[in-house]
Specification:
The protein is α/β, with parallel strands linked by helices. It has helices at about 30-45, 60-70, 90-100, 135-150, 160-165, 170-180, 185-195, 200-210, 230-240, 245, 255-265, 265-270, 290-295, 310-315, 320-325, 335-345, 345-355, 355-360, 365-370, 375-400; strands spanning about 1-5, 5-10, 55, 80-85, 105-110, 155, 280.
């Protein structure tokens, strides 16, 4: 993108649709082997830039695939898993199994409320607010682990859900129907969607009929207007975000359209939250060769056997312990975020109710007043509250920049 006076000019150098191919012939084993070689090569290439990498290992499929690939490089890496005090965010059992399988030392850390300074934004060094304030605790725990391990780069499994198509949509059926028509693979896609979503086939068929008309329309984002002022919400809905990858896309492959929308959703991870600490944050699963290969994989094959990210699971089946390979659910730090809101509710109310977002009539003061009470309202809105708190801190940080300065105070320029 080129910025000139009063306008921005953009050129597109890469288009995901160039790599979406017609699935005329297909061999899942062959493609899985190709995917494994590609992932191994990309991870090894990234690992060559680091002397002492540390991997954020949740015990989920994506970070475990990176662990398996790192174990084949020959350079010994460390790993860290960060848990909440609540069971739903404690994945140490999974991380331990994978760390042992890949020969990695595992550092076990926990989220700490004391690490969350609500005057600081996770994304304070970026020109846009893209974070959630509770992630400050994650970064603090991670940086302590980096120091303990003497690491010089952080590797993650970020983007795996998006690249390998972790979806619960009925969209793959429409891709199968377009490519195969009345065929056993089309019928099998219905059964696979049912196993992924854990609903009976008749319900999948009902959802397919319900979605059929929508599948013939351009992709539209689900807009999060929670807690927004009515006027601001209406303006957003009247002029929703757009992107050429979706706006100019063919409407004959709705599953792949959804896949590409997932790739757009992960772009914030490319920013590298740890840039302000002078520490590389490497997301190898978002490497261009892996993305381009994944785009060529039909969406109904990505849920083959009723498992999301099926080709990726098949690619690393012999290197992943069954506990990891067959895992269906993932933990979440949501309990930590809810605890943060409940324990610091007065501070949160002050920051949001008297903040810039309310002042500029982007967020509804009355909606906030209803949400910021102990009870179910917080559980329903906590994700949104974490984002709004980080936005407020981001705004305050950038307002403090003297005219002519390029970045907020405290930013370590690379």
């Amino acid at each position: 993108m080129e910025l000139v006076e009063r306008e921005a000019r953009a050129w597109q150098f890469w288009n995901p649709w160039d790599f979406v191919s017609e699935p005329l012939f297909w061999d899942s084993e062959e493609v899985a082997e190709r995917l494994r070689r590609t992932v191994d090569h990309c991870v090894a290439s990234w690992a060559s830039t680091s002397l002492a990498p540390i991997l954020t290992l949740s015990g989920g499929l994506d970070s475990s695939i990176v662990a398996a690939a790192l174990s084949r490089v020959g350079r010994r890496a460390s790993s860290v898993t960060i848990s909440t005090l609540s069971r739903d965010g404690d994945e140490r059992d999974y991380a331990r199994v994978m760390a042992q399988a890949s020969g990695m030392n595992l550092i076990e850390a926990t989220y700490d409320l004391a690490d969350v300074d609500m005057s600081r934004s996770v994304a304070e060094q970026f020109p846009k607010p893209i974070g959630f304030v509770h992630e400050l605790a994650y970064h603090s725990a991670l940086l302590r682990a980096v120091g303990e391990a003497g690491a010089d780069a952080v590797f993650t499994g970020n983007g795996g859900d998006n690249v390998f198509y972790n979806s619960s949509s009925v969209r793959p059926f429409f891709d199968a129907w377009k490519a195969r028509g009345f065929h056993r693979e089309t019928a099998q896609s219905i059964a696979d969607i049912g196993r992924v979503t854990q609903v009976p086939r008749w319900e999948v068929c009902r959802q397919i009929v319900k979605a059929a008309r929508t599948m013939r329309r351009p992709y539209r984002w689900h807009l999060d207007i929670d807690l927004m002022e009515a006027d601001a919400a209406e303006a957003l809905q009247a002029d929703p975000p757009q992107h050429d990858w979706l706006e100019k896309a063919p409407l004959t492959r709705p599953g792949k359209l959804g896949h590409i929308a997932l790739l757009l959703r992960v772009q914030n991870h490319v920013e590298g939250y740890l840039r302000g600490f002078g520490l590389p944050m490497i997301d190898p699963l978002m490497s261009q060769p892996i993305v381009e290969l994944a785009l060529a994989i039909p969406t109904w094959k990505m849920i083959e056997g009723g498992r999301n990210r099926a080709i990726a699971r098949r690619a690393y089946a012999d290197l992943l312990p069954p506990l990891i390979r067959d895992r269906r659910r993932k933990g979440s730090p949501s309990s930590f975020a809810v605890d943060l809101v409940n324990q610091r509710l007065d501070e949160i109310r002050e920051r949001l109710m008297d903040g810039e977002l309310v002042r500029h009539r982007l967020v509804s003061r009355s909606a906030l007043d209803e949400a910021l009470v102990h009870g179910p309202a917080i559980d329903r809105h906590y994700v949104r509250l974490m984002a709004l708190l980080d936005m407020e801190a981001w705004i305050t940080r950038w307002q403090a920049i003297p005219n002519g300065q390029g970045h907020p105070p405290g930013f370590a320029s690379l």
